[in-house]
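Record minuted for everyone:
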Amino acid sequence: MNRAVFNFGIAALVALGLAVPATAQRDPAYEAARENGSIGEKPDGYLGIVGGGDGQLQKLVSDINLKRKQVYTNRASAEGSTVEQFAFTAGCNTISRTKPGEKYQAPDGSWKTRDSSPPVRDARCP
């Protein structure tokens, strides 16, 4: 991975606030799912369903992930990066910004609940 592109991608995500699409932040179902631990952030930059989930939750997560992929694709292309590199950078940032009580996926694939300590992130995260 080109380190300059990786670092620029991080700066771009922070500047643009791309951790969570703005429409998702206003969706009460999204907020409720985050608060009750039904969904969490994954290291690959996408949302995941923790445990099972009904069709409505699956649709919500799928819709948000499609929007994220569109953003990652556009930004990666503009910056000469791959979608996967850009999404990984986003995952690093969104996991670091989780709040106590929210779920995130650790590098080993297990779901963790954020407490007051820093989250467990991939060693390649800045």
Residues 55-79 form the longest helix (25 residues). The helical segments are 3-16, 22-26, 28-35, 55-79, 83-96. The longest strand covers residues 39-41. Residues 1-17 have pLDDT under 50 and may be disordered.
